Predict the structure.
Amino acid sequence: MADVLLTLIMPDDVARHVEDLLLSRPDLAPGFTTQAADGHGTAMPLLEDAELVAGHAPRTVIRSVGPEADKREMLALIKRQLPRASVFFWMTPVIAAGRL
């Protein structure tokens, strides 16, 4: 099965739990990258006073490359363990990946 890039976007407080889940399953996520981001738009509810003032909500992005079956299992694991986590995701095909 071909490799895919799984991108997850979530509230910062949820990210700690997702990171712990991924670290507990190196078979599904032998490595991943996290990055701070700001969520904008009508699909992004602004709940805190600071978010309303800033006009965006802090988010964490987690990316992981690997076999599609493993990434689908990662999504299932997150859904089982954190059913109300509010994680937005997408998967894209990877043309090439490696180390230089």
Q: What stands out?
A: The radius of gyration is 14 Å. The first helix runs from residue 12 to 23. Strands lie at 3-11, 33-39, 57-67, 88-93. Residues 3-93 form a domain with the Alpha-Beta Plaits fold (CATH 3.30.70.120).
